[in-house]
Specification:
about 230 residues; alpha/beta; Rossmann fold; 7-stranded mixed beta sheet; two-stranded antiparallel sheet; about 30% helix; disordered C terminus
Amino acid sequence: MFVTRADRVREMLHTISREVKLTAPFTGRAALDPRVMEAMEQVPRDAFVPPELIDYAFDNGPLPIGEGQTISQPYIVALMTDLLEPQPSQTILEIGTGSGYQAAILSQLVKQVYSLEIIPSLATQTAELLSRLGYDNIEVRTGDGHSGWPEHAPYDGIIITAAATHLPQALIGQLKPGGRLVIPVGLPYMSQELLLVEKDLMGKLHTSNVLDVAFVPMTGSAYASKNSH
């Protein structure tokens, strides 16, 4: 039986919904915002994976994209997007552009996405891809994510798509009161926790552990100095 691309997209969405239900006892989310699911349907995931892996583009797993980096599994992309509770008027900062897929999803849901990538070649390549695909509300820059992107701060939401060993204070400082930050925290290639950090209107932080995850490590000067002792 011939399986069409539309069939594969539908199966991906079905798998995401099933995973959401299975993990609801941990995440507190039995379903995701329909806007998030619509973005997952509309953004062509197969455009963001290497050509030799297109047959696996809609599988619910991470895939290598070169430079030691990965594109996260669809369920995790959907969950992290939903945790941000993105709104049409918002500006979001992404740390770790990678393939550009997460930024493309967010671009469908918010006004502007600023995305930092520490690997120059990947930043250039992905910026060109996003532009070619018509995502004109995403700006990509090469930079160390630990420092954030202060020129456009404060942000309504911040999403980090690599595992940090700690909460970068610069990013906390660039988050608006009332904003949300989603970040995997833990040691490289070991147990990591997906955290939701909410900054209330008084500037106080409220952190909740959402789920155990596995991400490639966040790199950069702050990471290197913290782990050189």
